[in-house]
Amino acid sequence: MPTSKQKILAQLPQVDKLLQHSRFKQLEQKFPRQLIVDVIREELDALREHIRHLETEELASLHLELEEVTEKICNAIENKLKPRMRRTVNGGGIILNTGLGRAPLSSAAKEALIEVAEGFSPLEIDLESGTRGDRHTLVEDLLIKLTGAEAAMVVNNNAAAVFLVLNTLAFEKEIMVSRGELIAIGGSFRIPEIINKSGARMVEVGTTNQTYLKDYGKAIGEDTALILRVHTSNYKIIGFTANPTLAELVQLGRENDLPVVDDLGSGMLIDLSRYGLPKEPVVAESIKTGADVVTFSGDKLLGGPQSGIIVGRKKYIDAMKKNQLTRTLRCCKLTFAALEATLRLFLDEGRLLKTHRVLNCLTMPLEQVADRADQLCTRLKAALNGKSEAGIIDGLSEVGGGSLATESLPTKLVHIKLGEMADRELARSLRLNDPPIIPRVHNGNVVIDARTIFDDEIDIIVQAVTKIAQAGS
């Protein structure tokens, strides 16, 4: 190694010396000392490796003053030790973004979480008798009231709900499902694989675009256990298509003593078409039509925590509650607390849109979205004092989360340009802000979708962009 590199490496401060610096003393108030020491060593090792690979002419521009090294390492400590799970601003325009945790919870759900998290809770205690209770009853009455079902239970997501239903009702038996409903959501949930893992055998009926009631009738055999209908929530087949109605499948099931399971995927408790949105399947309508079991998500359009909800006939729900797999799929007290608070919102539809964050985003008039965009744009221009460009353009938001397939919502996008900074660098800087801000790059511009941010996040965005602009000047 050249002597010049050896001299530079020798100038690097020792761990003990850095720990005496006031900045590290402050960090010790927030983080354990040993974690700080570990990160200091990691950063010093990385800096040594970087120096070893520098060319001779690059060494002249290298700055190793104590303050600069200290600042770099302190920033690394802050970044590595800060919580991975924290509030994130969704400026990307996808309302139910799986990568961002899907539904933002209502204030009521947040308050319920805090109350339950700070102490103990009667998760499995019957307060009347003082004896062991059943967590499955915590929200069952609410779900029965909202859906009209005889019974209900909750597991940790809708994939688990479908899996449990099939494993309980059709283990080592046959399940009939239309070829046009063999859906895949994301990269991990595929109906054929779920059926296979459940221990049931899949019998495909019909074709991708055309399935008739007679196709189901011909496929019924001695080993047929149930009829499965799957809502194609994240795509549409158009053109020359045919599918039997749920009522027709229910009638066929009754004639052959076969339960009909209706997997709604996202599912909804109210008719969204009343608010100008495309109609999504309403759980109560499936129950009223005669579906024996209905499954749907709690964390998509319903706007609650990640969960899978199963409602239907009591004899089938009771069988699932007794299934040994149910314990592996059950939810914790936090899920039940947030879900109960979310379900209660649907008891008062008059107040629902004001308190339900997902529905509020979905139904917000474009004029209100435009007002929010104007506030953000005006604040950005004032804060940056002509050092950047900010303007408003028309755009589209997506529902996301496998819901309302192919549907987009009109929105307003606030585009931001900071001098010569590349759009991808600005987007990265926003993502690395604390709290993170997720924008999108649209036609060469970094944009913030005003439909998917909240009013109290305007300050966060303005402060972040201002800080980035100052750091780059």
Layout of secondary structure:
Blueprint: H1 3-11, H2 15-19, H3 22-27, H4 33-52, H5 56-59, H6 66-81, E1 89-90, E2 94-96, H7 107-117, H8 140-147, E3 151-155, H9 158-170, E4 174-178, E5 184-185, E6 189-190, H10 191-197, E7 201-205, H11 213-219, E8 224-230, H12 246-255, E9 260-263, H13 283-289, E10 293-297, E11 308-312, H14 314-322, H15 333-345, H16 349-355, H17 357-363, H18 366-384, E12 389-400, E13 408-417, H19 423-431, E14 437-438, E15 440-442, E16 445-449, H20 458-472
Plain-language structure description:
The chain has 3 domains: 3-81, no CATH class; 89-99 and 361-472, Alpha-Beta Complex (Aspartate Aminotransferase, domain 1); 107-352, Type I PLP-dependent aspartate aminotransferase-like (Major domain) (Aspartate Aminotransferase, domain 2), CATH 3.40.640.10. Helix 4 packs across helix 6 (66-81). It has 473 residues and is of the alpha/beta class. The strands form 4 sheets. Strands 3-11-10-9-8-4-7 form a 7-stranded mixed β-sheet, sandwiched between helices. A 5-stranded mixed β-sheet has the order 2-12-13-16-15. The protein has a two-stranded parallel sheet with strand order 1-14. It is elongated, with a radius of gyration of 28 Å. The mean pLDDT is 90. The chain has helices spanning 3-11, 15-19, 22-27, 33-52, 56-59, 66-81, 107-117, 140-147, 158-170, 191-197, 213-219, 246-255, 283-289, 314-322, 333-345, 349-355, 357-363, 366-384, 423-431, 458-472; strands spanning 89-90, 94-96, 151-155, 174-178, 184-185, 189-190, 201-205, 224-230, 260-263, 293-297, 308-312, 389-400, 408-417, 437-438, 440-442, 445-449.
